[in-house]
């Protein structure tokens, strides 16, 4: 249980949110939603004690444990995988360590004996005897095979570390679990595993996410951070979305009487409850009919960034030729025998059962990585702009937003840069913020602005929707559909691919499958699936 009272956080003069009064109860899963930069991550950092609020306080149920999904991929490099997971329960980890220290002493005093007995007792109370097997079964559930459990973290790939850190957060069933965008960088299979896991836990879970499907599957409640306030609703993301849309329509229609509006709202809730009758939260949602006041639901203030890609030079017929490319990591073949031409109308989605394959291909095509075999040639009329999966290096600086963007612009006058930043939803004092404090989604908006400035005719996009809020995803999506150049993209967002791409290339250890069809057709073809099963074997 978590109780938040009168919470306020200020950065400089600006208050991010204030008067926050919320209660989070066991058995519920709360989806924390809000636009990029609304303050979701900041809120979780306050709850975990990472950051002090300007005002107000946070109380946990007595003796309760809190656990946080960590984002730092290098923090546990010198530990084995299994020990990293067990450190998720700090108290238990400490006792295990102290115990080991005593038993490894050459001389064992009477005092040591008493201390050891105490430690053994708290060890047993925390279910210490099952710790290792619990950690192992979490790892295996997440697809980290047993042969890796005693490997050092430094030898694991980024994708594997994401899963291990997730196991660490879940380890020992913490009373309060905080997850900030847990589905970023997870493959579909693991997302489904996490959905099942979260649907069956009876502790208090808070999850920040922009993934609508994930939110709808796991959340019983929604907390919307908007207008510098946080509002809690019973119901999942779709419920929040539909009801805020209704509120918007009603706000625009001033002629309707309050009574009529109330009736409309009740009907909406009844309909929604009926449709979602499978959900464990139906009863509490029904209770809302009495409680919910139309005045309480505000139309959202989410805004769409202006994403427009202009092309300086029209692309010729020769775009890209790839010959016999292959790559391996850690003895595993990511892809081999990759041969293709790109045409000037191509918008290609790259797929693979190992997501590292796409990142590696893009790094090769942008000369950041060397292939094991093969080569490629870009056409003379092409100029490419790359959105890499990992953008952290770009923001490891003390620069302000306006200076940062100036690096990539021909025109470095403040008026021009401000205009550009305005389109990316940064205005007023925001432009003097240091780029390193930006939220995940704000950083993505900066990276997109950088791409817009390059006026290239080829876009290479590795996981472009990671971190972005739904409004930004939509704006980005619409722009790509109308883009007059060539696109190479990798994304787990099927809708994004479906609407943008006209060609699919799947990279396998035994060559490629290359089809000029939309994604849904590709995925539903039995013939292609059979062929792929053979190629991944
Ligand atoms: N130390 C700081 N100084 C000034 N502003 C800050 C600082 N830390 C964060 N901010 C700003 O506070 C706002 C909220 O950031 P936060 O990371 O909480 O957003 P978020 O809701 O998690 O967004 P996203 O969906 O993009 O992850 C952002 O505009 C960010 O730039
Ligand atoms: Mg965030």
How would you summarize what this structure contains?
With 537 residues, the protein is of the alpha/beta class.
Annotation keywords:
binds magnesium ion; alpha/beta; binds adenosine-5'-triphosphate; 39% helix; 537 residues; 6-stranded mixed sheet
Report on this structure.
It is a single chain. This protein has 537 residues and is α/β, with parallel strands linked by helices. The protein has a domain at 320-536: Rossmann fold, CATH 3.40.50. It is built from 19 helices and 18 strands. The strands form four sheets. It has a six-stranded mixed sheet with strand order 5-6-7-3-8-9. Strands 14-15-16-12-17-18 form a six-stranded mixed sheet, with helices on both faces. It has a three-stranded antiparallel sheet with strand order 2-1-4, with no helix packed on it. Strand 6 (176-180), helix 7 and strand 7 (204-208) form a beta-alpha-beta unit. Helix 3 runs antiparallel to helix 4 (110-125), helix 9 (237-252) packs antiparallel against helix 10 (258-275) and helix 10 packs antiparallel against helix 11. The longest helix is centred in the middle third of the chain and has 18 residues, at 258-275. It is globular. The chain starts with a strand and ends with a helix. The relative contact order is 0.10. The model is unreliable at 277-286 (pLDDT under 50). Adenosine-5'-triphosphate (ATP) is lined by residues 11, 16, 34, 36-42, 433, 437-442, 467, 469.
């Amino acid at each position: 249980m978590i109780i938040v009272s009168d919470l306020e956080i200020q950065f400089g003069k600006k208050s991010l949110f204030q008067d926050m009064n919320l209660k989070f109860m066991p058995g519920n899963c709360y989806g924390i939603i809000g636009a990029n930069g609304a303050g979701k991550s900041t809120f979780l950092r306050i709850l975990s004690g990472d950051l002090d609020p300007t005002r107000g306080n946070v109380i946990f149920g007595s003796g309760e444990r809190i656990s946080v999904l960590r984002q730092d991929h290098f923090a546990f490099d010198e530990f084995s995988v299994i020990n990293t997971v067990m450190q998720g329960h700090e108290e238990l980890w400490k006792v295990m360590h102290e115990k080991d220290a005593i038993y490894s002493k050459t001389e064992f005093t009477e005092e040591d004996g008493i201390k050891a007995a105490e430690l053994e007792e708290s060890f047993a109370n925390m279910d210490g005897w099952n710790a290792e097997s619990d950690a192992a079964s979490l790892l295996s559930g997440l697809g980290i095979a047993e042969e890796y459990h005693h490997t050092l973290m430094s030898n694991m790939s980024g994708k594997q570390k994401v899963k291990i850190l997730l196991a660490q957060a879940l380890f020992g069933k913490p009373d309060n679990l905080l997850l900030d965008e847990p589905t970023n960088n997870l493959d579909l299979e693991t997302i489904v595993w996490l959905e099942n896991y979260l649907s069956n836990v009876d502790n208090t879970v808070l999850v920040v996410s922009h993934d609508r499907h994930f939110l709808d599957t796991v959340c019983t409640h929604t907390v919307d951070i908007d207008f510098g306030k946080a509002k809690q609703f019973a119901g999942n993301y779709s419920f929040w979305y539909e009801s805020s849309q209704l509120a918007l329509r009603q706000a625009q229609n001033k002629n309707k009487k309050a009574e009529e509006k109330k009736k409309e709202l009740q009907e909406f809730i009844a309909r929604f409850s009926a449709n979602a009758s499978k959900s464990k939260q139906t009863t509490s949602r029904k209770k809302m009919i009495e409680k919910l006041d139309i005045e309480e639901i505000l139309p959202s203030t989410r805004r769409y960034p202006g994403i427009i890609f202009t092309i300086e030079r029209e692309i010729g017929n020769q775009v890209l030729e790839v010959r016999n490319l292959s790559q391996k990591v850690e003895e595993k073949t990511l892809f081999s025998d990759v041969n293709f031409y790109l045409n000037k109308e191509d918008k290609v989605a790259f797929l693979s059962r190992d997501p590292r394959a796409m990142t590696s291909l893009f790094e090769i095509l942008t000369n950041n990585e060397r292939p094991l075999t093969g080569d490629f040639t870009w056409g003379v009329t092409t100029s490419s702009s790359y959105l890499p999966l990992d953008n952290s290096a770009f923001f490891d600086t003390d620069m302000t937003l306006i200076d940062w963007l100036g690096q990539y612009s021909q025109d470095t006058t403040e008026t021009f840069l401000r205009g550009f930043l305005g389109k990316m939803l940064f205005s007023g004092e925001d432009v003097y913020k240091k780029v390193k404090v930006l939220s995940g989604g704000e950083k993505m908006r900066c990276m997109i602005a950088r791409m817009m400035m390059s006026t290239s005719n080829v876009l290479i996009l590795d996981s472009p929707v990671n971190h972005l809020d739904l409004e930004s995803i939509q704006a980005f999506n619409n722009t790509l559909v109308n883009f007059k150049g060539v696109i190479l993209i990798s994304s787990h967002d099927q809708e994004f691919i479906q609407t943008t791409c006209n060609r699919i290339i799947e990279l396998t250890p035994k060559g490629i499958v290359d089809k000029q069809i939309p994604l849904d057709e590709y995925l539903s073809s039995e013939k292609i699936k059979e062929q792929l099963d053979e190629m991944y074997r």
